[in-house]
Amino acid sequence: MGILFKGGTVINADGKHRVDVLVEGETIAQIGADLSPDGHQVIDCAGKLVMPGGIDVHTHLDLPFGGTYSNDDFSTGHRAAAFGGTTSHIDFVIQPKGGSLHDGLATWRKKAEKAQIDYAFHMAITDLRPEVLEEIPSMVDEGITSLKLFMAYKNVFQIDDTTLFRAMKVAAKHGMIVMVHAENGDVEAELTPALLAAGKTDPIYHSHSRPPEIEGEATNRAVMMSGLTGCSLYVVHMTCQSAVEALSRGRALGYPVMGETCIQYFFLTAEEHLGAPGFEGAKFVCSPPIRTKHDQEVLWHAINRGPLSIVSTDHCDFWYEGGVGPYEEWAANHPNGDWHEYEAQDPTYRRPGKERGKGNFAKIPNGLPAIEDRMMVLWHAGVNGGRMTAERFVEVSCTNPAKVFGMYPRKGAIVVGADADIAVWDPDKEHTISAKTHHMVCDYNLFEGMTVRGVPVQVFVRGKQVVDGDQWLGHNGYGKFIPRKPFAPII
Ligand code: DUC
Ligand code: ZN
Ligand code: ZN
After folding, report:
1. What is the pLDDT of residues 399-434, one digit of tens each?
2. What's the pTM?
3. What is the spatial distance between Cα 246 and Cα 182, in angstroms, rounded to a whole number?
4. Is any ligand 1 atom within 6 A of the Cβ of residue 484?
5. In the chain, where are the structural domains located?
6. Do residues 239 and 299 touch, judged by C-beta distance below 8 A?
7. In whole angstroms, what separates CA 170 from the centre of its chain?
8. For FRET with 115, which of 101, 106, 198, 249 sits at 20 to 30 Å CA-CA?
9. 287 CB within 6 A, ligand 1
10. Residue minimizing CA distance to atom 8 of ligand 1
């Protein structure tokens, strides 16, 4: 017995069709008009849209960062993702300083044991010793075909230009893609102490410490490195005109460069959100910072007309009011423990969060909750709002992620032979986004109070239904690692 999605409109990146979809086991077996329901479980899709499950290529689940850990892990984050129509994601393994890439991989594999949806890994290099440079090609055998390098976060994750150049040369040879967080961390490290010394400690000053010029400069540098080495480059979380222009210049020169933006950058502004009264602005502190209305228009244009290819989230959520319970005492007594252990003692305990940065914006953990809302908000503002077609919506949130990161056509499209990752959308259903009802482990929501029209009502991962309306049907351990292919296309 298969599952027959009957009577819906299938939307792929290249078109919309009134066809039925038959799933057998974990994959799509047949697509066609009026397929026979005999012997199958029928999902009535009349009036509904049948789309590929979303792929969020930029997440940080359970990330040790900013003196704490991001809240959502490979169980809670996966549930939240699927409720929003996302059925796979790619998380960043962080190489431990002094350790190997495989050391980092072992840590992230352990985190992912409870996966509820499918996932892949990028490898973030923080310490490129000669033996680590030699280790890079072995990542391809592990199904990891993308490297991440941070040009920001001095003394934490930041790499220098020598490292970027060397890593790109090796990556190019093996068909790997290099991703960069493009902000000039050296300049940020000059600006931040000067602002703090001048008494400028509120959340809004986080954006002053990371102006668009440092993003534009670093983006241009990475683009030119791609030209020098021939290595495919993917610039993550692009936010502003100067960065988008640098990417466009690279593409015009024929360099193999691509970029993404994240959903929040279309909606939030530094002035309104980071500048909110009191400490509220901390909720919106991420790097690069949210910008201006003008930059939002640049991004909408760039995602429709190029040079941007993908909308992701950089999901990395922290409590607004965290640090509840005797965590300092606990941490002192458990030097190798993690916050999950601490919270398991008592669900009212909370690991540290944004409150760490009261009186010092530089201590606010950087990151936002978005994995659940990405597709609903993009559909509503993009498709309902007349800013993008439904096909382009599928392209930037499902298909391009699969193509750019070597998972296509197994993921990212409703085609015969693909994994049956399917989101059935009700285009007429309204939903008001709120922290009171979302599934992310976070005490606030970026889009609080926004009513969206068009939401996923039934979600399937490899043929298994995980979401039915408000009901969660998935379980820990169902999600599988997606090994990815090298030499992916430039989109
Ligand atoms: N930016 C964030 O805001 N959070 C996680 C890491 C990053 O680069
Ligand atoms: Zn980043
Ligand atoms: Zn990130």
Report:
1. 999 999 999 999 999 999 999 999 999 999 999 999
2. 0.98
3. 11
4. no
5. 54-318+353-374
6. yes
7. 25
8. 101
9. yes
10. 287
